[in-house]
Amino acid sequence: MLDVRRLRLLRDLAQHGTIAAVAAAHTYTPSAVSQQLAALEREAGVALLARTGRRVTLTPAGRTLAAHAEEVLAALERAGAAVAATRAGLSGPLRIGAFPTAMRTLLPPALVALGEAHPALELSVQELDPAVVPPMLRDGTLDVALVHDYDLVPIEPDPALRTAPLLDETIFVAASGPRSLAACRDEPWILASQGTLCHTMTVRACEAAGFTPRVRHHADDFVTVLTFVAAGQGVALVPELAAMDVPAGVVLTPLPTRRRTRLAFRAGAAAHPAVVAFADTLGIALGSG
């Protein structure tokens, strides 16, 4: 019998590419991950890993088993959802991840509605950049998450996760007056922290317009960003959700660039009552998976 926890490690090795990355995702030591994968090889009776020096790759058998691991883990999620559906009423934890603008605009009314409809549901929310959400969903740290991506920064599909669309937003140039992106070439810029999707989107948008932004400030909260723009500290790109209370002196010019917000959850969890209830409060229709 193959151990499910070890199958999860193999699946994550196929996703992350290195034992060190798998260890970090699970807060294990690399040695512990290696030992568990070695035990999985003994269970399977076939070599799953090919080792060349310090480099580890999956053998054909390892890739096959990793693909089946996705199906096994999704089936377990579906089984858990089916069991949860037999209970009378929703209870227990629902761990939610969300990016800052969603925390401020989309989540509060949804949390109120969900709490009123299901008072025994234990809601907890964590503010996160979408870039760090997938591993937290895969390892069960989160149950659902609001994530976004941009047409300039698409997110690679993750076979362990499913998403359902919520909304598309326009991206604006925020400046002291009407301004095309190309006209901001010589302006100082306010960018999000490096490594965030918002930072990458702004850099790519500027590069597509023929220049690299000259960064003066870094700020991740769009209220702060717009306040800095109003204070004459630079220009920025902001999404529609962040443009609801624009300070005096800031003019927004729409761009063709779009941001897409989605609900993300583990494959197999679409029918879980808590996931369905959360999606319903946001007006999201979930497919199977």
Describe this protein with a few key phrases:
single chain, 289 residues, alpha/beta, Arc Repressor Mutant, subunit A, D-Maltodextrin-Binding Protein, domain 2, 2 domains, six-stranded mixed sheet, two-stranded antiparallel sheet, 10 helices, 10 strands, 40% helix, globular
Alpha-carbon distance between the two ends: 25 Å
Assign the CATH topology of the largest domain.
D-Maltodextrin-Binding Protein, domain 2
Number of domains: 2
- What CATH architecture of the largest domain would you give? 3-Layer(aba) Sandwich
The 3D shape can be described as globular
Strand runs, count = 10
Describe the structure.
- The protein has 289 residues and is of the alpha/beta class.
- The protein has ten helices and ten strands.
- The strands form three sheets. A six-stranded mixed β-sheet has the order 4-3-5-10-6-9. Strands 1-2 form a two-stranded antiparallel sheet. A two-stranded parallel sheet has the order 7-8.
- The two termini are 25 Å apart.
Indicate the topology:
Layout: H1 4-16, H2 19-26, H3 30-44, E1 49-52, E2 55-58, H4 60-85, E3 92-98, H5 100-105, H6 107-117, E4 121-127, H7 133-138, E5 144-150, E6 161-175, E7 188-191, H8 197-208, E8 214-218, H9 222-230, E9 236-239, E10 251-266, H10 273-282
Parallel strand pairs: 3-4, 3-5, 7-8
Antiparallel strand pairs: 1-2, 5-10, 6-9, 6-10
Protein name: LysR family transcriptional regulator
Domain HTH lysR-type: 2-59
Organism: Dactylosporangium darangshiense
